[in-house]
Amino acid sequence: MDLAGKAYKAFLERQEALEKQYSTKNAEKQHSKGKLTAHERITLLFDPGTFEEIDAFVTPASQPVEFGKVERTFGDGVIVGHGKINGRLVFAYAQDFTIMGGSLGLVHSKKITKIQEMALKMGAPIIGMMDSGGARIQEGVASLSGYASIFQNIIQSSGIIPQISVILGPAAGGAVYSPALTDFVFMVNSTSYMFVTGPNVVKEVLNEEVSSDGLGGAEVHARKSGVAHMIYDDEENTILALKKFLSYLPSNNVENPPIVETNSNENDIIEKLRDIVPDDPNKAYDVKDVINLVVDKNSFFETSELFAPNLITGFARLKGKTIGIVANQPKVLAGVLDINSSTKGARFIRFCDAFNIPILTFEDVPGFLPGVDQEHAGIIRHGAKLLFAYSEATVPKITIILRKAYGGAFIVMNSKFLGGDFSFAWPTAEIAVMGPDGAVAILYKREISESKNPAELKKELVKKYRDKIANPFIADESGYIDEVIDPALTRKKILSALEALNNKWVKVPARKHGNMPL
Fold it and tell me: Which positions ≥6 away from 223 have C-beta within 8 Å?
C-alpha cells in the first residue's frame, strides 16, 4: 500500500473510532431519561445536511497530577460547529452528557470559546445547548478559568449577536451564569434544571429537603425566578420552538430583522377591536385579544409568559416585519406594574433596542403596585429600570393607550415626553395623575364626609372627574398624545407610523455607557 493509501486508511480508522464512541448503550441511557443525545439535538436544530462540526477529534487536557479518572475520548464532551437554520448561518455547541457527564474541562471550554469568537466575527447568532454535570473536578482551576473565558465572550458579544441558551439537562454552580448572561433561555419540563447550589448543599446548610426539579426546574425558573423565558414539555418541541423564535431575530446588531411573506389581503381595519374594552372601567379583559387582532395572523410569540404575567412581552409581525410587543395585562393584578414586571419589561426593551426591533406598547395601567413588601424590596429602583430602558431605546416606539394611564406609570410606559415617537389613545382611555376614585376621595374628602348621601355624591364626582380631567380628548387637545383614534383603525395607524419611522435616526451623547439603576 502506498503512502497515500496508508494515510487514507488511518483517516477512515479514526472516523470509525469516533463513530464507535457514540454507542447505542449511551444513547439509550439518554433516551430513558426523556432526553436526546447531543448529535440528535444538533440534527433536529439545523437544516438537513448543513451542520459542519469543528474540533471533533480533540482530546481532554493532560493532568499534571493524577486525581480521579479522565476518559481519553474524542471531542471532550461537547459538539461545536456551524450550519444553517431556516437558511441562515448559526453557530452552536451541544454538551454531551454521555461523555464524562458533559463536564467542562480546559479543552471543552476552548472549543466553546472558539465557536463564540467565530460567531462574533461572522455576525451570526449562537446557541448553547447545555447538558452538563458542571466543572470537571479532576482539572481543578483550569475548568474554572474555562468558565470565566466563556462568560467573558458572552459579555463581549452582548448586544452584537443574539445569544440563546437551551437547558436540556443539569446546569449547576458556575455553569448557570452562562445562560443567565445570554439573551433568552429555553428549558424543558422535568428533564432540565439550574441552580447555584444543589439539593445536597441546601440539605446540609439549611436542613431543607428539596428535589432538583423543585429547587431549579423549568417551572420554577419560568414562573418564579424569571431566569427561563420559554419552557416546553419535551426536547423536540423546545428545539422546534427555538427555530421559530430565531425567525423573528436579525443575525446581528447591524442588520434589520428578516421579513417574511404575508397575506397581502389581510384587513387593516378591524371592527372587533371596538368591542374588547368593557364599558365598566373596573372590569378586566385579555389584552392578548387586542394583540392578536392587530398583528399578522398567528404571528405573536410570547416570551416569559409565566413570569410577571401582569406585563406581556413578545415578538410579532406587521406586514411580515418583526416588532416587539409590551402590554399591560388587565386580567392579572389589573395590569399594575410591580418589581418583576418592571424588570421583565426593561430586559425585553433593551434587547429590542440592541437588535433594531421597533417597540409597540399597549397601555392599560392603573399605577405601580402599592404595599410594604414592594416598597421594601425596591419598587422605586426596579420601576426605574423600565423607565430607563424606554427612554434609552432609540428604535421606533409607538404607544396605544387602551384604557387606564395613571400617574408615574403613564410616564414610564413610553409616554411621548419620555421619547415615545407616536402616542395614540382609544376613546376609552383615561389619562390622569390618578384614578377617579382616589382623586375624588382626596379632592372632596370633606364634602363627601358631610354629605347626607356620600355614595351618590362620590359617584357624581367620579363621573365629573372622568369627563373633565381623565378623558383622552383633553390630552389630545393639549398635545400630550398625538391622536384619539377609532380602535378599528389601530393596525392601520401603527403601520402608517412605522412607515414614517422607517428612517428614524437619533444622535446619542458620547459616553462609555449609562448607569442603569440595577
Answer: 306, 307
What residues act catalytically? 173-174, 408-409
Q: Which CATH superfamily is domain 34-246 in?
A: 2-enoyl-CoA Hydratase; Chain A, domain 1 (3.90.226.10)
Q: How far apart are CA 504 and CA 356, in angstroms?
A: 11
* DSSP one-letter string for 19-65: HHHS-HHHHHHHHHTT---HHHHHHHHSPTT--EEESTT--PPPPSS
Q: What is the pLDDT of residues 407-441, one digit of tens each?
A: 899 999 999 999 999 999 999 999 988 878 888 88
The one-letter code for the residue type at 478 is S
Mean pLDDT of the chain: 91
pTM above 0.90, yes or no: yes
Contact 398, 498 (CB under 8 A): yes
Q: What is the pLDDT of residues 255-271, one digit of tens each?
A: 999 999 887 677 899 99
Domain at 271-429+471-500, CATH homologous superfamily: 2-enoyl-CoA Hydratase; Chain A, domain 1 (3.90.226.10)
Parse the chain into domains and list their residue ranges: 34-246, 271-429+471-500, 435-470
Buried b vs exposed e over 209-233: b needs ≥16 C-beta within 10 Å? Answer: eeebbebbbbbbbbbeebbbbbbbe
